[in-house]
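Mods, move this if it's the wrong board.
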Amino acid sequence: MSNVVLETKGLTKYFYDPVKFQVLKQIDMSINHGEFVSIVGKSGCGKSTLLYLLSTMDTDYEGQISINDQLVTGKTDKQLAEIRNEKIGFVFQFHYLLSEYNVLKNVMLPGMKLGKLSNAEIEHNAMEHLRTLDIVDQALKMPNQLSGGQKQRVAIARAMINNPLIIMGDEPTGNLDKKNSDMVFDIFKKLTVNEKQTLLIVTHDQDFADRTNRIITMEDGKIIS
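Not the wrong board. Structure tokens:
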């Protein structure tokens, strides 16, 4: 098995509203197992659009995307939903916790959807992830009882529940103060060091990016370094 978790070849994307506009231009990139990679660039350079394509949520593009040596370009919506649930964890700028469920259930939901383990096993794994992130004492609380930093840790635990090949983040520290941003960075760093977790994070925070293993810089829809 190769060491490459994610690879793109000639990835190109157009927007058509109100006129045809090329937002990504021939993107060739690869992410290796256990790497902690950040994507930076000015607003509008295409970095969030790129992440959206890599996450398989947008299939309207030219070129190829492979995850774990498997070509995902051209797969059906159902196949892509399975790949997303099993192989990719997501952490967004907003935590997107479901207000009607407690912390534990929020973390368990992607595992229950995947359906590979019993609910008891998923609950055990969820509690372990919450313990790793130092919020196991919040497991039975509702999301509205948590601070912003705690909510984001719950979102990270949820992203980890199916042991994904790669965790993708879109501005995961964008809503947090310096203290909580540093805490989220430290969690990500620990995941790469201790669990060999692969991370790909889009960020505006240069200080955050500078501490990752590798920085991909984008400008005008292209990777420039």
